[in-house]
Amino acid sequence: MTNSFFIKCIAVFQFTKDSFLFVPELILAWWFLTKRIFLSLYRYWDTKLFFDKIFFIFLFLQLLFSILPWFSYEIRFFEIKESISLGPKLNSVFILLGLLNFFFLGFWKSQWTRIWFFSSQMVSVVFVIWGYLDPKRYFYDFVKPEEVGLHIPFYLFLGSVLGAFVFGYLTFKKEDEVLGRLHT
């Protein structure tokens, strides 16, 4: 029994020693992999048209602002005031649409992605307007609407949706012009 325990302790020690010796190699491998990914992304970014770069930035901002909390309200516990920030009930819809738009339109272009983009932007705008008009149904349901304040990410999300819509249209128009010139 003690011989078996002693052998297992030596094996654990050997494994730990080998693991620590492997860490520098692992860090070096991750460094080269990360560098290659960022260089590839930079080369990809460098090939994009000007409007496409701005469109890409607006898609990223739309994703970012869909994740951040849009509302805040204050709760009073005895004499202590506490400010609570929260996102809308439909936050997962806004995040999913932002994520899909960012990846589909940032890295892949086709006819169906254009239809997807404009449809998803319209869905986002409709849900935001409905939520603004009836916040108890679409944004939050456990506080009074008059106690809730809007955070800046709500307005920035709307601005990013509008910016993405405008620059998406301009990007698609410019791509069609370039493709039209190539086909004639």
Structural write-up:
The longest helix is centred in the first third of the chain and has 46 residues. A three-stranded antiparallel sheet has the order 2-1-3. The mean pLDDT is 83. Strand 1 and strand 2 form a beta hairpin. Helix 2 runs antiparallel to helix 3, helix 2 packs antiparallel against helix 6 and helix 4 packs antiparallel against helix 6. With 184 residues, it is mainly α. Helices cover 76% and strands 9% of the residues. The protein has two domains: 47 residues; 135 residues, no CATH class. The chain has six helices and three strands; from the N terminus they run H-H-E-E-H-H-H-E-H. The chain starts with a helix and ends with a helix. The radius of gyration is 25 Å and the shape is flat.
Which structural class do you get from the secondary structure elements? Answer: mainly alpha
**Domains, number:** 2
Radius of gyration: 25 Å
Helix/strand order, N-terminal first:
HHEEHHHEH
| Low-pLDDT segments | none
- What is the number of strand segments? 3
Strand adjacency order, main sheet: 2-1-3
Q: Mind summarizing the main beta sheet?
A: 3 strands, antiparallel
The separation of the N and C termini measures: 84 Å
Label the overall shape.
flat
* Mean pLDDT across every amino acid position: 83
Helix proportion of residues, in percent? over 70%
**Count of helical stretches:** 6
Portion of residues in beta strands equals: 5-15%
Fill in the keyword field for this structure.
184 residues; mainly alpha; 2 domains; 3 strands; 9% strand; transmembrane; transmembrane helix; membrane
